[in-house]
Amino acid sequence: MTDTVPTYPFARPTALDPPAEWEQLRSECPVSKVRMVTGDEALLITRYNDVRELLADPRFTHSLTEAGAAQISTSEDGIFNRDEATMTAGPNHQRWRRMMNKSFTVKRVNAMRPRIAEIANQLIDELIAGGQPGDLQSALGFPLPVFVICELLGVDPNYRDKFSHWSDAMLNLDKFSQAETAKAAMEFQEFMVQHVLDKRAAPGDDLLSELAAIVDSQDGRMTEAELVYTAQGLLVAGHETTANMIGKMVAMLLADRPNRWDRLVADRGLINPAVEETLRLDASSSIDLPRYISEDIEIAGCPIKAGTTVMASLSSGNRDETVYDDAAELRLDRVPNPHLAFGAGPHSCLGQALARTELQVTLTVLLDRLPTLELAVPVEELRRRTGLIVGGIEEVPVRW
């Protein structure tokens, strides 16, 4: 490990480029001390195999409510700081995951493709009507996933501005004060508690109603508290992460226009591998996945004591030169592509099928509707979203 303790997350030269520290740490110091925005220290893991091994090991909890765990956010109500996270961790996780897998299936998500395409077309109609240049992020990237997740959960999409604020607050690093995040957390909790009660009383044709009715063969059905936490988690993850990724995906593909975009216009068979490759190369996916180490372990030959908080850098692992040929290059036809964008192991992202579907459908509709799409500003002028656990781009100005 290094003697100095750098501040984390690292600064990036542009909205699309990775910090220089990743490559250096993978080569020289794959287990490195870092200092979070709270001032607490953690260890950063940067190599692909180390990250994958850590995430796949069920002994290492993703809850940071243990005494002595490093605090990731400056507020106490962020997504990693909540006691409710233990509902779907440890011995409860297998039961919860088993229930979720009965309803939140790939088949269900695939059945949503026509509706996702319909929403995308409506939003692109509005983008075109607004004239050029337009902001792809505010017109398409942010609204599409929230419309989709609201329909999936049977939630009124007219609350989408509130959902956006609540999601940002739950994903706070240092953008919001403790009072702001506490207020948002209380409002979000009250809203979802009432929504779950309404679904119990009058079920609809939505995922939450189905989850409320499912009886697990071993442990009964989900409690109200579990349903509330599940709905909150799906809404935050389903809205925020995919919303940011739509803008980043399009920006990455347009950054090397015409080489990338025009190839996709000409060959739609590249859409799915292109989506996977942009997920792999996303340099601002998140602050990474924290794990609280409950027993002494060793990673990359480095002993790590119980009670340590470890940040598993998915984004750095996805650029590991020992795993990927031309790891820094975006290759539209890269297959296979076993990237870590959705994590690995028993806690891999439950909503990855939905995220992939939204990205694939959005890209398909954009190529159909706006084949001459291009960035309206130089790549270097794209502005990063900061202060949140999930990274993104503020605006993606485009012409067509």
From TrEMBL:
InterPro entries: Cyt_P450, Cyt_P450_B, Cyt_P450_CS, Cyt_P450_sf. CDD domains: Cyp158A-like. Pfam families: p450. Transmembrane segments: none annotated. This is Cytochrome P450. Its cofactor is heme. The keyword Plastid does not apply. One of its GO terms (molecular function) is monooxygenase activity. The keyword Heme applies. PANTHER family: CYTOCHROME P450 BJ-1 (PTHR46696:SF5), P450, PUTATIVE (EUROFUNG)-RELATED (PTHR46696). Keywords: Heme, Iron, Metal-binding, Monooxygenase, Oxidoreductase. GO terms for biological process: antibiotic biosynthetic process.
